[in-house]
Amino acid sequence: MLKQLLTATVLLLTFGAANAQQPASGRELIRQMYEKNHARFYTTLTFSQEVLNYRNDSLLSKDVWHEAYLSPSNLILKFTSWDSGNGVIFANDSLYTFEKGALKSTRYRMHDLLVLGFDVNNITPEESITRTEKMGYNLNRIEPSTCMGRKAWMVGDTTSKCFWVDAETLLFLRMQERTGDNARSVEFSRYEYFDGLPVGTEVRFYRNSSRPYMVERYFNVKPNAPVSTTIFDPKKFAEVKW
Fold first, then answer.
1. pLDDT digits 0-9 by tens, 21-37
2. Which of 54, 129, 167, 232 has its CA 20 to 30 A from that of 15?
3. Residue 202, Cβ neighbours under 10 Å: how many?
4. DSSP labels for 104-164?
């Protein structure tokens, strides 16, 4: 306990020197994220990504996915090739899964990474707060932390759901979800800027390990590209391109 208190004290002193305003809560942090970033953020994004699947340190497989994002929380993914017929759509707080062009399943799903990594910067803070709390994050809890070697704010409960935000840029860094002894986490491990717009171009996925089981690396990245709402219609999945 003493060690934990000393660690917390050191972090607080460090943050106090570097940051004049400590967010009073996760709600206040979300408001600060919006205020800092909304003027330079985007409401659409298209890209392709290399997908690397690992077991321990061994590369098992590679694939290429094609994706398009439209705020708030709309995302379409086409796996392997444009015409494979395989992929998913996130829309209307639902996940639609397709195989060979046919809709195979539909289920409720709010996408944490879309809300915290994208929408939070381009929709009103109150909307983001409502959606984040609905996903199960305790926004009453916030503390200084570090994440991938950067000073960060950690929001939520490490025994259930929490996320980290870069204390300087106020961009999303990482989320973690724990159920009993099982933990899943995802981190935006690299940001790049395209015409001054920040995009997390490397995403790492972890499950009960310090080594990722999947890594995504983006290319052909186009913020604010034309994206029509029609591509998120499940009835049109097989035919749409962007």
1. 889 999 999 999 999 99
2. 129
3. 16
4. EEEEE---HHHHHHTGGGTS-HHHHHHHHHHTT--TT-EEEEEETTEEEEEEE-TTSEEEE
